[in-house]
Amino acid sequence: MTVAPATPAQRPPTAETVPEPVPAAQEPEPEPDAQKTQPVAQEPVPEDPEVTARRREFLRLLGEFRRTAVLVPLGDFPGPEDERGLLTADFNGIRFILAFSDEQALARYAQARGEFSREWTYRTILGARLLDVAVPAAGVPCGVALDCADGPDGMVFPPVRGIVPDEAAVDRDEDQADEGGSA
Q1: Cα gap 77→107, rounded to integer Å
Q2: Which of 103, 148, 156, 157 is the most buried (most CB within 10 A)?
Q3: What predicted TM-score, i.e. pTM, was given to this entire model?
């Protein structure tokens, strides 16, 4: 019986045919010149002065709103315990509590709605209490719209960190959302 010579694929491995093991997850050594050309950490780019000024102005207005008592009309429908809830409006999936700086601002809103002749029942509530208590109690993404009938003179306080409590903010980290339950 004649035995055919073994092909390279059939031969047992020898020291010449076994490849060298490759170390796992090892980064290549940098070339000597590569270390000299590595970018140096850059200083953060300063914010545009106009952006900084607008941010400061908003924070000033937010602080003023938090310290001020505003008028909040009661809605037409009863809330929990058959008590009338605060008047709200939904916009793009976010609920806004409607607040007014004074009776004239509320009257402008009533006029814009064509409901100037009806009686408007309202509560006087501190801005901070609206943001810190009423917004989280809404159970849905909620902010506050101040003097909404006054166009550019009105103000919107959206449900974001720094304005409302973190647990009520729509921009909170996912880790915080998971810890706090459903959002």
Answers
A1: 21
A2: 157
A3: 0.67
